[in-house]
Design a protein that fits this description.
Two copies of one chain form a homodimer. Chain A is of the alpha/beta class. Chain A has helices spanning 11-22, 34-37, 59-63, 81-92, 119-123, 134-147, 190-202, and strands spanning 2-6, 26-31, 47-51, 67-70, 100-104, 111-112, 117-118, 154-158, 162-164, 171-174, 187-189, 210-215. The first copy, chain A, has a single domain (2-215), classed as Rossmann fold. In chain A, the strands form three sheets. An eight-stranded mixed sheet of chain A has the order 3-2-1-4-5-8-12-10, sandwiched between helices. In chain A, strands 6-7 form a two-stranded antiparallel ribbon. Chain A has a two-stranded parallel sheet with strand order 9-11. In chain A, strand 1 (2-6), helix 1 and strand 2 form a beta-alpha-beta unit. At the A-B interface, helix 4 and helix 6 of A face helix 4 and helix 6 of B.
Chain lengths: 216, 216
């Protein structure tokens, strides 16, 4: 398939580029830094890189591909752009079924505990929360926005609490509850996330909902 | 003040143009039909008309004015554009305080009855609802979206159940409950709406919330 990855040079995005290439897909990697794009495996003829801001993607740009993965990341001070980019992509693709949009959301919008409270409320108790809480807060707003979208082919994916670099390991899958493995760890490597997303792209199991993946 | 009105030729928009001019404001009227714009009081030097789709409004366009009123209307088949236009305007104005954005929302997002259910659920019981229910449904989604926006200067306004043409009459004001007057009627004329909005623009009483107005 033709897969476009927004934020392709980040932790999640670069793992996705590698996994998609490994599976033989045609990959278009978008990012704002030419220098960072050059560190992707650009010797692979299946990879195309573009320096392009995602807010300039038109309907025609998007419809040139089968799947668009939004792995956008930005500074906490601009975290509202998570919402605005989702709204931009959705607005370009109203009343279409292709491309499929895959949004990487944070763990904050997952539920946890016996009372099923939002995990973002736990994150907010971190002594350093003020410096980064805007990111999970806005990724929750992004999911709230997406849940009202019924005429675009979208799916959301959340990692577990600790989203970290690393190769894929066997995975746990869930829907809206924060996952914890048998060792009581709640983590997802970028590799595990990439495998789960490529599995979902190749064999769709979720439609207009968010699912979650964790390291087993 | 400089006031820009999106959807200026519609029932709400044209009443707003007249009321804003009557109060001595500088008005820019935007609409997609040049023919309909020509029916506004274009002999008034305080009125400027532009044929312009609202989705093309840039940050610079918007910041040339003090207030932008979104009185956009469209066909029920395109009702999702209510959400998309709100998202577009918000994205252009993140982390600003001016212009103020005023959104005319439907009555469907108001609560009614002892159980405070959404009025859109009552609207859905109309035998002809299938032909128009997408409009109140998407105006509810628009309000849901706006309620997550905390870094733009916005306010929403809902009419009562029957939003109809007509001159201003004395008004009832509320917040999130559908209003009914002493005669058990729930209606708002375009003139009453225009007066309530211009009052709110001149003397702000609401910030990042929705209020409602009805004919007394």
């Amino acid at each position: 398939m033709k897969i476009t990855i927004i934020g392709a040079t980040g932790m999640a995005g670069s793992a996705l580029v590698n996994e998609a290439l490994r599976r033989g897909h045609q990959v278009t990697a978008l990012a704002r830094s030419e220098e960072k794009l050059a560190k992707l495996p650009t010797d692979n003829p299946a990879l195309t890189t573009h320096v392009q801001g995602a807010f300039t993607l038109s309907t025609a740009d998007l419809q040139a591909t089968d799947v668009v993965i939004d792995a956008f990341a930005t500074a906490p001070s601009l975290a509202f752009q998570h919402v605005d980019l989702a709204a931009h992509l959705v607005a370009q693709l109203r009343e279409t079924t292709s491309p499929r949009l895959v949004f990487i959301l944070g763990a904050g919008s997952l539920q946890t505990g016996d009372d099923h409270h939002l995990f973002v409320d736990d994150i907010a108790k971190d002594p350093n929360a003020a410096s980064f809480i805007s990111v999970p807060q806005n990724q929750l707003k992004e999911l709230n926005f997406l849940r009202d979208v019924d005429n675009v082919n979208w799916v959301g994916v959340s990692p577990a609490a600790n989203f970290h670099p690393g190769d894929a390991v066997p995975a746990l899958l869930g829907t809206d509850e924060l996952l914890v493995n048998a060792q009581q760890e709640s983590g997802t490597s970028a590799g595990t996330m990439a495998v789960a997303i490529l599995d979902e792209i190749e064999q769709p199991q979720h439609h207009q909902v968010r699912f979650t993946v964790a390291d087993k």
